[in-house]
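Quick start: read one record
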Amino acid sequence: MNDIVEQFEVTFNQIHQHLKELNGFPKNDNFVELLQRSKRKHSVIRVHFDQLKQYAKLRNAIVHERISGDYFIATPHDDVVKALKRIKRTLDQPPEALEFATRPVLFFKDDTELSHIIEAFQQHRVSQFPIYTNDRTFAGLLTNDGVVRWLSENHQNGSITLDKALASDVLSSERERSVEFLKASAPVFELEEQFEISLVENRKLKAVILTDTGNPDDLPAGIVTTWDLIKVDQREREDEENE
């Protein structure tokens, strides 16, 4: 077999195998169908979707429309094989979730005074802080929306007193917010999968907190919101442009 064609086919089949793995080895393992499914969940597929779809057409032409022996109706260009191999390398060794997280993570204990947390919201320009108990048990995610809600529920005669108000008091006013935990060294695919699952389940995932072990009661190494996922797409597109 022509060497360039063999390299293309081998790499293409390896990517096909990755797509099967990313989708739990479904019965329908058609390459383009797997592409469609993976596009919704994973940035590397989303960014390279059109390319991979065209490569699938080329692969079909090579496999099903061979004229004879080593004479193919179409032969991939060197640049095509190089691009396909780069995509395969990214699938083989995806970046870690922690690379796209906001860090370091500012967090507070549940007995922290609310006035201090309000100052932190203003100073750091973030919208949420993880809250932990004194024994490092995760207590919940305290948000600026939750603070506003608590203030509206606790004003008297048009005035609000923050004296003795603690983070734990505000947590009771937080609406249920989905928070997941993931090992900091987990591949970015697992991070994206968490947000995709929450979308399918119609459950708003507010954040994924990354810890060294993935245990909720370990201190946070990073925190990822839907806004941080934009970094994943940007990173992949920059890598593509610099190739």
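The longest helix spans residues 3-22.
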